[in-house]
User: Fold this.
Amino acid sequence: MQPIIIVRDLWFAYEKADYILKGVSFSITSGELIAIIGHNGSGKTTLVKHFNGLLKPTKGSVFINGIDTKQATVAELARNVGYVFQNPNHQIFADTVYEEVAFGPRNLGYDEERIHELVESSLQATGLDGTENTPPFALSMGARERLAIASIIAMDPKVLVFDEPTTGQDHKTCLEVMEIIRKCSKEGKTIVLISHDMELVAEWVNRVIVMADGVILLEGSTREAFSKQEVLKSAKLKPPQVIQAARKLGLQDIPLTVDELVTIISRDLT
Amino acid sequence: MKIKVEHLYYTYPYSQNPALSDINFEVKEKEFILITGPSGSGKSTLALSLAGVIPHILKGGIMEGRVLIDGVDSHLMRLSEVARKIGMVFQDPECQFFGLSVEEEVAFGLENLCIPRELMEKKVNESLVLSGLLKFRKKEPSSLSGGQKQRLAIISVLAMEPSVIILDEPTSNLDPYGASLVLDTLQKLQQTGKTIILIERKAAHVMPLASRIIALQEGKIVVDAAPRKFFADEALLRNLQVYTPQVVRVAHKLQELGFKFNEFPLTVEEFCELLKKLGSGGYATDNYR
Assistant:
């Protein structure tokens, strides 16, 4: 498979010589579902803001679908990368749900018929069909999160970046959001997820990039990453409870989900 | 210090449905209560009512029933009187900051309570030490990290020495490390005898601390129980759709498979201890031999 995102020795500083990213290199294959994890201030958000050109490298380079982001305009990159913000309230501004979702495709210059199609299919995908005429701020927090996602999906980008999509959401909304993400992934979208929620990452994501202080500590399968205690410790991350329990019980296997731990215990400990 | 809530109803202006509906409970001294429930279930509204923000600041809504603070109806108290007894930390700490420096932020509440200068300096110092923010005392609050901001919000409320402190999702925007520092602070507070009311959707990391859980759904209290009883009831958890700690879910599934726990585990430590005790010579239970 082709890499859709290539990051080569990326350095970035807002202010001179105060580097937030310090030589980051990796690539993401088209269609992958990958998570970037790390503590606050580790550089996760700064990194993904390079994918849609909101930030440009101080040194090094970022290629999206073969385009060097230094040469590309934000509009050009927006066709390739959609970015769902952490707080949906920060991206919502239109009077109705329909207009909110139509804004992106309209800016990409599609005709009204195509816009209508994109809006309806995104509302359907996020369970918001039927709310076309509702003012966005009249929606519940959970529905607003889904609206934020719908308005990005509507631009039909190849890559979707979700920055802490479940923060501040209740349990039911978390599951709804993750279902939407899984659906997008199945349809072949490349998904980059930023999350603090290690349980969620363990349960839904196969490959992770662990960041700390502007560098990548580890890149690998979720199971591999969560089996390296020292790496997690230096990234100030704590593995999910099922892994903590497996270690305390002296089990050989690293479980990623509740069901996996149940299987291991009932197999090995009876 | 006791708080008693009697038949409390609250409806926001322009709203059809009550945000709180017939709420009754009592908060005893030194309790650590976890209030949980889905978005929109009334958690924050309840917190605002306990802290006197409703009815004193948020006006225009309809409040029925009463909140008694040491036997006095909160309607009949001034907000400053309520604030001396009950402190509240808001969900987004930035909402409550306005000082130009960290120490000024902490001193503000004390200035309002007319504390003498020498005493104020001592208290500000103590708070900064407790929260590990001493070296940032001259910094602007906005320059702090998420976890530091949250701790600053907590200590600026604490400096006023309320006996009860209410925190509305203090860790929801923090990374696991920042969240654990905030919880450490709460544990220290619990040890000093404060009453703590914590609103939180993810109960896993709070479990060793809480002595009682109150769950809200559509403005009503649906459960008011000890954590062990709350999490042992699988049907209830499913019905409430609340987040359940992983070890609790594992314990439920193992019970279905015939494992018998003497006590229902709530933390990783308890779970491992109980599992080791399940049988001698390995982990087999009678059902499995």
